[in-house]
Design goal:
With 195 residues, this protein is mainly α. It has helices at 4-12, 23-31, 40-53, 58-62, 65-71, 77-81, 85-92, 101-121, 124-129, 153-164, 172-181, and strands at 138-139, 185-186. A two-stranded parallel ribbon has the order 1-2.
Length: 195
């Protein structure tokens, strides 16, 4: 149970500077970012959201997350994989999401490929976490935000493998953001309250 003092402490705690003062960003930072995710549905959600974010700020996508959930069948991968031209037209006219045809088509393509990986490896989680040494999150020693890389040799490797499989909007920078979001790497500042 959170007491008034512990709530005040969380509000006044040191956090990664990117979280800023937006309550939505702070909640995401404190409760999700950097926490290990092994659930395929959540991993698929982040795959779609990170792809949508390409060229945009993460807060732009975070503010539209609920719209994405509605537009993309609550991230049920089999439903998204079955989207047709009618669905693409619906999505292109949905003001609640990023209405970029390439990103919309990419999300549908990625859903189909996600299912292929589930069939091959048993789950997408088994596939993606197998890239991480010992399957344990990489704990980076981040003292200041300028120490956070935009990509790493590992994100290069994962991105290359996924692109070879046909995934769209999953270059090494997006891959690394996905790794951060799903806790494959912990890039919280060493003195961050959410570390």
């Amino acid at each position: 149970m959170q007491t008034p003092n512990s709530k005040r402490q969380t509000q006044n705690s040191i956090r990664c500077s990117w979280a800023g003062s937006d309550p939505l960003y702070i909640k995401y930072h404190d409760e999700e970012w950097g926490k290990p995710v092994h659930d395929d549905k959540t991993l698929f959600e982040f795959l779609i959201l990170e792809g949508a974010q390409a060229g945009l700020s993460w807060i732009t996508i975070l503010r539209r997350r609920e719209h994405y959930r509605k537009a993309f069948a609550d991230f049920e991968v089999s439903k998204v994989a079955a989207f047709n031209d009618e669905d693409i037209d619906r999505l292109k006219n949905d003001e609640g999401i990023i209405r970029n045809r390439l990103k919309i088509n990419g999300a549908i393509t990625n859903a189909k490929l996600f299912i292929e990986i589930q069939r091959e490896f048993g789950s997408f989680s088994k596939y993606i976490w197998a890239f991480i040494p010992n399957g344990k999150p990489i704990e980076n020693k981040i003292e200041k935000m300028s120490d956070v890389p935009a990509r790493t040799a590992l994100s290069d490797q994962i991105s290359k493998d996924m692109k070879k499989r046909g995934f769209k909007f999953f270059g090494t920078t997006i891959c690394y953001a996905f790794m951060q979001a799903t806790g494959m790497v912990n890039d919280h500042l060493l003195n961050c309250c959410a570390r």
